[in-house]
Amino acid sequence: MEAEGGKTQFELPRGFAGRILLMSMNLGHKTIYKSVAKALELRAEDSLLEIACGNGHFIKNYASHVHSVAGLDLSELCIKLATKKNKKRIVAGSAEFVLGEATQLPWEDNKFSVATSMSSFLLFTKPVALESLKEMYRVLREGGYLFLTVPSMSLIRRIKALLRIYPAFNDSNEIRDTFYHIKSFKLQIFHNFSGFDTSVISMSHV
Fold first, then answer.
1. Largest CA distance in the chain
2. DSSP 19-61
3. What is 45-192's CATH topology?
4. Phi and psi of 143, rounded to 5°?
5. Could you tell me if 109 and 140 are in contact, meaning their C-beta atoms sit under 8 angstroms apart?
6. CB of 19 within 8 A of CB of 12?
7. What is the C-alpha radius of gyration for the chain, rounded to an integer number of angstroms?
8. 99-155 pLDDT tens trace
9. What is the pTM for the complete model shown?
10. What letters, b where the CB count within 10 A reaches 16 and e where it falls short, cover 18-46?
């Protein structure tokens, strides 16, 4: 997929191709969304933040019952679509979608009870991931929690990676190296930044 400013469609969806990609991700990530929703056990009083929210599909379909929601994404297309998809909640004042970087969250301290980011950290360099975690920790209330998903390196995923089927990893050695070492990458980040207590939940998804 073509790159814009060094970013592929996977990193920065845009245009018609970006719309198609987002629709396919909604379908392809259905198992992930259901598993995350089950693990989060969102309550009516929760305030949810989703980093790399895409077109707002998860918030629309799995967080409609919570007190308030917010999504952040680097893609203008994603924010436009997420805003349209969740228009009623935005009008009601219980939702907002913001264009921005995870390293500089535009919310005050202690705003959210839950934060999540699904399958986006594999595209972050280690410094960006660490700063993003610090920001997520800052905006979470005391007793709040962060739920991240990263791909497990199953045999099929390893074969796909070796065959260079994942377009996002074809041109960047740094990203590709992060992808191959995603488990140690995740553990190292949490080890370096001790603000979070951690636990790991395994979910089978290829």
1. 48
2. HHHHHHHHHHTHHHHHHHHHHHT--TT-EEEEES-TTSHHHHH
3. Rossmann fold (3.40.50)
4. 90, -5
5. no
6. no
7. 16
8. 999 999 999 999 999 999 987 877 777 788 888 988 998 999 988 888 888 766 556
9. 0.75
10. beebbeebbeebeebbebbeeebebeeeb
HSE value, Cβ hemisphere, 13 Å, CA-based, for 13: 23
Are 115 and 48 within 8 A, CB to CB?
Answer: yes
Residue among 36, 33, 18, 7 nearest 114 (CA): 36
For tokens 């800052």, what's the residue? 138
Report which residue type is found at 82: A
pLDDT in tens, 115-125: 999 878 777 77
Question: For a pLDDT cut of 70, what percent of the chain falls above it?
Answer: 69
Domain extent listing, the chain: 45-192
Given a cut of 80, whether residue 172 has pLDDT beyond it is: no
Show Cβ contacts of residue 2 under 8 Å, excluding neighbours closer than 6 positions. Answer: 8, 9, 17
Identify the sign of the CA torsion 26, 120, 94, 20: negative
The identity of residue 20, as a single letter, is: I
Task: List the one residue out of 197, 170, 53, 181 whose CA is nearest residue 125.
Answer: 181
Residue type, 32: I
